[in-house]
Amino acid sequence: MRVRHKIFINYRQTDAGDAAAFIDHALTRTFGPDTVFKASRSVGAGATFPPVIEAGLDEMCVMLVLVGRHWLDTKAPEAERALWRDDDWVRREIGYALALDPEIPVIPVLLGNLRRVPEEKYLPPELRSLTERQTVHFRARHVVADLPGLIAKLHKEAPELAVRHFVRADQEAPAGALPSTLLLPEHGVVPFHGRKKELARLEAWRDAPDPLGVEVIVGAAGQGKTRLALEFCERSRRAGWVAGALSSEVTLNDVVALSESGVSALALIDRAEPATAQVADILSALTGRGPDAAPVRMILISRTAGAWFEEIVERSNDAAAALLLGVRPLELGGLGGALDHDAEFRDAAALFAERLGRPAPPPAAPAPVELMGTDRVLDVHAAALGAVLGPVTRPDDLTAEETDPVIRLLHHERQDWKRGALAAELPDPHRERLAVAVAAATMYGGAREDTAYRVLAVQQTFCQEPMQVIRRYQRWLARLYPPGEQVLGTTAPHALRPDRLGEEHVALTVAEHPELVRGLAEHLDAEHAQRALLVLGRAAPRHPHLVERIAELIEGDLANLPRMALWTAQRLEDPRPLIQALIVMARRCTTMGVAHSMLPLIPPEPEYGELLVITARFLLSAEHTRANPDRLTIAEVSRMLGLAHSVLGEHEAAVRALRMSLEAYGPGFTEAVMDQRRVEVHTLLAHSLGRIGRRAEGREMARKAVERMRPTLATDPLSPIVSRRMRTSQQAEERLLTDALRAYLDLVDDPDAESAALAGLLDRLRRIARLRQQDRLLQWALERLGYISAKDVPVPPDLAPDVLRDTLPARHATKEELHEARRRLAEQITLLLDAPVDATEPTPVDDVVAAARVAGIYRRHGTLTTATEHGEEYPLTVIAIALGEGDLRALYWSPLSGWWILDYLYLDPYGDYERVGNLGMILGPADLAPDAIVAAVTGGMAPPTQGWGSLA
């Protein structure tokens, strides 16, 4: 299926030549030159005119008919009017477009002071419907107002124009490009093969009935993630989809407009880590479309899943977050035994030799011995390209391992730089200057020319050169590595690629030229500093000397780069070198501001333990030296310090820090958050005391944590069918109690009745955690039903089958069945949450609940917020009483009247309390005996009316 995506400008040169040229220039700046067809520009010199015009007509999604005062000369005889001639291209083009009506919008553009299209009697029969079209005006004197109106009209009438923001997967390598570009996945020099299982999974995901889908592909560098995604995009294009990488200039409205145009779209985002905000915004907008919207699929690529993906979930709306919860990343491992090293080496070498016009290695030549242990296709292809390029005269400054094919290819690349620089007649193109220029472009990027200039201008090799020399080197870089079409997620249009090749060059160059990072921070924009940290962080595990350089870069901007480095570390395969650089920075130049901004962002994990200890100790020392130390700061920082010592196994130090935290958390702090902090400290302290042999003390600390958290399970046993924020709060409380129970039971030497009871409570909490996970998956399935037109959806694979009815069709459920499953989940969780409460004074509700249990009419109880007659709200504890099949009542004590009342109970679609009625029956005062209240409830009540809730 051909996708129409062009604006066709229809005009007569003698009537609207100048206006057509101006409109063409303006629209190409907005939509791109490949999206606008104007004959005098689009038909190349020497090309056959009719076929090119016809091809443009076949690809147009909208036609602009430029009508000026001389478009139709009404004073001339009819036979002499150009528009009436059969061979007139203006007439033929308009007639073709109108014949496709209503598929193609045809918009008359009235030039100058024209008010309307000429009357029907002056037009050929097939063009007369043009007079019924809505027109737009374009006047030279009002171009500032008319041009935006024309562009807005095009966006509205032809949303397919957003196709221009999808970079095609099958880009041709530019003529004369460096040999390394033959390795880039978008050029596909070596045909794709293998990965049949992964492609089958992607095809099944693409062809599912959902209008929106997300897939995540992760894997180490060189495993072929991007190549797999591009191959799938190419196959999808052949299946009628618009597919490719999203352009860096794409807007939210562009993607939504494309999806609403009826075009199926597959968007690829490589290096998804820097684009989390854009991805979340796009997904959130797409979940709000109608049920009949065209399908959209999005593939996100990264070396590792983790913090960046969680950030997208947090930034997205509820529907998009629910969708993302169902994503299971496609982890791309090495090819292992499936990789025939010899065959892959020979095939790649033959293709590279053909492209470069060089002789290929002998057909029987095996792959180098050093490749036998690799399962990365990139290594094999790099070795094949190096074999075609031949032996290299190794520069004296390079001492990398000869067995690394990527390093050997880098030697060839540097020789090509030298030859290209001499041909370009660059001033003094010595090897250090060329290496620094390429490393700067690769490490920092060149999305903005002024930033790239500032980076080069302060380098030692360029600092004495005039501006025009540095600009010449910038132009040389642009020709050396042409940017092509920029895609979302990158800020380095002139970087040395593949990424592994660029990282190796940066590491080797920075080793000799530390000024590439030292003192550069003040010259960088945030996106370029972030890219530098990412490139250096990825290269550092192979080049330990970069740790000191990264620390120097961070020290150049202490207000921003420490936090940015922490953000980057959580997105790396191996974050340890970047963490070590932060430790070096922290030991040398930590300030109060830096420590305060970093501490909340440091994960409590062993890799970050030393950094957490250094930062927390600095803040504690600074706080204790103040005239009036802040107790809350001391409590929080010492808690983090104790946690850091604990994850490092330094339990004696952890006990000391945690006791300081408990003392600071003493009387005066009553907020719920502070209570949870105390519980966390008690639990951590119990753990560390047990590790140093003080088990009795540890058990007592854990007991206090359990006693503090147990009441939260019974004071407000809400169902899990609540907002994301409330559900998160419930899970946090349950997690704290689970940790405290586990710490206590680990320290029990002689099991007794109490420990057996607490073990049972721990088991219940684990079951609750399982049920809550099932609830999240059910919510995800319901969200899918919310924006697709299907009657049922597949049940998520992680959902236990016993949650749903046995009569469900194979692994599918309707909306009603999913709601019923969630209601049953709510009931199960409520029953599990009904834990005993150590209360010295039982409340009236507790007594009535106990009596209702004995009578066999109790179902559950929970808190409902009800508006009073004065508009105020108060919590109302409602006991659900079942008096028969389908007969559920609300029994509650009213704080306004002081009476026990029996009323209707209404449940929402999730089985949660929605409201109680307003025609309640008074049963008695608050001090009425519980047995008497239960007797009044069961004493001859009328049958329920339609609409009452049911838990039967």
Radius of gyration over alpha carbons?
A: 35 Å
Span of the ends, CA to CA: 54 Å
Q: What share of residues are in beta strands?
A: 5-15%
Oligomer: single chain
Report on the architecture of this protein:
By secondary structure, the chain is α/β, with parallel strands linked by helices. The C terminus is likely disordered. The protein has 34 helices and 19 strands. It is globular. A hairpin with a 5-residue loop joins strand 17 and strand 18. 48% of the residues lie in helices and 11% in strands.
Summarize the SSE layout with pairings.
Elements: E1 6-10, H1 13-31, E2 36-37, H2 39-42, H3 49-59, E3 60-67, H4 89-99, E4 106-111, E5 136-138, H5 143-157, E6 166-167, H6 196-206, E7 212-218, H7 225-238, E8 242-246, H8 252-260, E9 265-269, H9 276-286, E10 296-302, H10 307-315, H11 318-325, E11 330-331, H12 341-356, H13 377-389, H14 405-423, H15 431-444, H16 449-457, H17 467-480, H18 499-512, H19 526-539, H20 546-555, H21 561-569, H22 576-589, H23 592-598, H24 609-624, H25 631-647, H26 651-664, H27 672-691, H28 695-709, H29 711-715, H30 724-746, H31 753-786, E12 792-794, E13 812-814, H32 815-833, H33 844-855, E14 858-867, E15 873-884, E16 887-893, E17 899-907, E18 913-916, E19 921-925, H34 930-938
Parallel strand pairs: 1-2, 1-3, 3-4, 4-5, 7-10, 7-11, 8-9, 9-10
Antiparallel strand pairs: 6-8, 12-13, 14-15, 15-16, 16-17, 17-18, 17-19
How would you describe this structure in keywords?
disordered C terminus; 19 strands; globular; 6-stranded antiparallel β-sheet; alpha/beta; 11% strand; 952 residues; single chain; 34 helices; 6-stranded mixed β-sheet
